[in-house]
Amino acid sequence: MKRTLSVFLAALTSISIVSAFPVYACDCAEEELPVLLCTKCRKDDIQALKRTKPKLTANSRNDSYYYYGSYESRTLKWSPVDNALLYYIYAKPSNKKSYEKIGSTCNTEFYTTYTVTTSYIIKAVSFDTEDRKILSRSSNEITLKYRANRKPDYIEYDECTDCEDGYYEEEEICEEADVIEAEVSAPVLSTETRSEIYRPVMPDVYPNTEEYAHVTENSFKLASTDPVSTFSADVDTASYANIRRLIRDGDGIPEDAVRIEEMINYFDYDYPVKDKSGFSVYSEITDCPWNKSAKLLHLGITAPVPEEKPDSNLVFLVDVSGSMYDPVKLPLVKEALSVLTDNMTEKDKISIVTYSGEEKTVLAGAGGNCKKAVTELAESLDAEGSTNGERGIITAYEIAEKYFIEGGNNRIILCSDGDLNVGISDTDELKELIGEKRESGIYFTVLGFGKGNLKDEKMEALADNGNGSYHYIDCAEEAVRVLDKECTENLITAAKDVKLQTEFNPDRVKSYRLIGYDNRRLENSDFTDDSKDAGEMGSGQSITVLYEIIPSGGKAQKGLKYQKSTGSEEWCTVKVRYKKPEQTVSKQFSFAVDDSFVRENLSDNMKLSASAAMFGMYLKNSGYKGSSSPENALSLIKDCDNEGAAELRELIEIFIESKE
């Protein structure tokens, strides 16, 4: 009986609430009509849909499951149509005068229930990328008769008040009924043509299988013997958003989930005006809030903004495997798709590739102004099956290459929880797969979704090796922030293979420690090696770096800028090396940090970055956290008047309350 009930619950999730017929307006239409296109544009329907119209059938009768009232269930099936990207399902119950859309799918079957005799029609929909038209063709009509007054397959809930779940088969006695250990909920579905259906809420008993990479934390280094610090830029923000999700849900925070540089770089800082001709820099030295014997060096580097926004060729690679069947996974992916299309124009190109057990090209090369088509296609996506991410990645690159825009922003955007269980699934093999495509001029951005099954290690590795960034989407607001408010920063590359190298002056610095960037360390020789991959920075995007410094006088190392004691006021020299998106040879600029950057009081920039670092070190249980605590991190930004500080204050307050 438990198996039957699980089938029933799964079936309920397929039921679509009845909605009105969609309205599309084309350029030549004088008014919007309740049809897919105006009369003038529908004349090409038959030519665009080359094969015969879909032939609609239904499977044999299914037994009804547990319910209040009586209904029947059937699976509609139809033949595929050439060029069809989507199928709409329309129903006309015998007590209604017209058809209503009850759902849509990319597959060729659809589960439906009915409480009266009902007629159905399938409409195949195609999108003509050249003429910018939505085209459609309808199937034959079939009628499914409802069997009235048949013997029920159940005993009503209120007829068995002694059973915890209220369900047992007619042949069973109450004492022998299977009991589901779950809290009983109220009915959840109700329409004019559908009876209320009783559905218990199943408990969340799934184990937490989230995966995070362990990386050794940066330690202090002596400036007299090891004065050079070299690392790759990192503008990812996934760690902060993921930690926010864990805190809001009241879950424990794995130490390896905390990447302090991503917590620091999540926020916007008041850096110099972004210069269109090149990078801008910011620097500040103050007392370290968590270590009284140390100073804190804050560096801010902002990438240039291109004179003109390049046209975009975006390929959405969407994981539709069974693991994505969750309210905070696929529904948020659909939200992200909808948000990003709002920023696209007719010169842009958009494609959608899905993968589960197999990959499928849902949309290829459509104009960025086809927002309604993209939205409808996104809404049709459903999650089921295994996860062959390898095939999806290969197909996404093929589509991106086919519609490649010279001098444009060519990018794949992966939307997934990272749970790959078919094909290549090992992190190192995935890095190799993506690395082979890195020089194609196609960037690979990763958006992580979901809880309980997040494969953070794989997601970060894919972005790092695909010349892209990694962001975690924990709510609709985060989708808007990443893909709307900061669209150009996250999705338009201004500089690639960005490396930073800081040389400390032993006259001023005894030892130093880079805070965060633990998995971004590079060998000093990698700095001038143009074959060595590094991070990317988007248009006008900033990277923030913190060093904890122990001041002192000391001997310098030969062969470097500070090879002998000169009494220089410089604490360090920072070098930045990068390539323009279309170039293979790097450029370099540098700037020195001297006593003119020392501040007695912490600026709002320093307070915010230091607070994020303190909170991160506490959560990570860092060996260098000193006096870091949620309370001290909160106190540091209590008077800061900016949006980032307000966001961080709220999160820390939630965390403190959860521990009381």
Which features does this protein show?
5-stranded antiparallel β-sheet; disordered N terminus; 660 residues; alpha+beta
Topology:
Layout lengths: L1 H11 L32 H4 L7 E3 L13 E7 L7 E8 L6 E6 L3 E6 L3 E11 L4 E6 L3 E3 L76 E2 L5 E5 L5 H11 L11 H6 L14 E8 L7 E8 L9 E8 L10 H12 L7 E7 L3 E9 L3 H9 L9 H14 L6 E8 L10 H10 L6 E6 L7 H10 L4 E3 L3 H10 L1 H5 L1 E12 L4 E6 L20 E4 L3 E10 L20 E8 L7 E7 L10 H17 L9 H7 L6 H17 L1
Parallel strand pairs: 13-14, 13-16, 16-17, 17-18
Antiparallel strand pairs: 1-2, 2-5, 3-4, 3-6, 6-7, 6-8, 9-20, 10-19, 11-12, 12-22, 14-15, 19-21, 19-23, 20-22, 23-24
Describe the sheet with the most strands.
6 strands, mixed
- Biggest sheet strand line-up: 15-14-13-16-17-18
| Class inferred from helices and paired strands | alpha+beta
Helix content: 10-25%
Topology, number of strands:
24
> How would the global form be characterised?
elongated
Q: Distance between termini?
A: 44 Å
Describe the structure.
The relative contact order is 0.12. It is built from 14 helices and 24 strands. Helix 5 runs antiparallel to helix 6 (371-379) and helix 12 packs parallel to helix 14. Helix content is 22%, strand content 24%. It is elongated, with a radius of gyration of 29 Å. Strand 23 and strand 24 form a beta hairpin. The longest helix has 17 residues, at 604-620. The chain has 660 residues and is an alpha+beta fold.
